[in-house]
Amino acid sequence: MHWRRAACRPGNTEEGIRTLNFLKAMFKLPLVFCIVMFWIACSNNKTKDNAAIFRNSTVISIDSAGWPQSFGFGKTATAAIIAAMDKDVSPDGKGLPHGSGNAVTGSLVYANKCVTCHGTNNTSAGGKLPGPPLFANPDSPQIKTIGNYWPYATTIFDYVRRSMPYNAPGSLTDNEVYAVTAYLLHANKLLDTVTSIDATSLPKIIMPAQKRFVADDRKGGPEVK
């Protein structure tokens, strides 16, 4: 007598199918239970965090209730103070002041107030300086400097006047800033030693890197001009 093995497999009978489905359901129950418990735990933690934030904010509010409106630091920004700080210069030269300077005079100003941090055009590319290099070095073209990266000559004047020298920003006269700007342009082989620059001539100097920049004329989002 020969038995049919297929008939002995639970999966091949109605009762066997029900048994398999039951076993599958039993295996899933622990997983469902773990997921539910995890969700409950996260909800409780979030509630506790919100409560802690509320308590802390309440404590801060109570603690600062007796604080004065002002601690007396600083001073009121008058129209004169604001005007003194409103010195930005546009690429087209708008905002440039009266005055002038050339590279000869600028080299003296640079030697007295700038060289300590920025070095000279003879400073080794591997030298360690407090400030970034300002001279294009053919041995290190990857280093971004005025001569190979800055798109506008007017940016030199704008930055130097507002931010340099590091220990006394804003202390240079307009003529000194023009002179230093002329010296930096000369050191980057963009200007001779005797030509004076001023509010009219400086914007006309075309920087080598200007053609590598494109105007951002994208629309549909925040526009920065």
Category by helix and strand content: mainly alpha
In CATH's first tier, which class of the largest domain applies? Mainly Alpha
CATH superfamily of the largest domain: Cytochrome c-like domain
Tell me how many strands there are: 0
Question: Which sheet architecture does the biggest sheet show?
Answer: none
Amount of beta strand = under 5%
Question: Can you tell me the CATH topology of the largest domain?
Answer: Cytochrome Bc1 Complex, Chain D, domain 2
Order of helices and strands: HHHHHH
Number of domains: 2
Q: Which word captures the global form? A: elongated
Helical amount among residues, as a percent range? 40-55%
Could you characterize the architecture of this molecule?
With 225 residues, the protein is mostly helical. The protein has 2 domains: 42 residues; 125 residues, Cytochrome c-like domain (Cytochrome Bc1 Complex, Chain D, domain 2), CATH 1.10.760. It is built from 6 helices and no strands. Helix 3 crosses helix 6. The longest helix has 50 residues. The N and C termini lie far apart (95 Å). The N terminus is likely disordered.
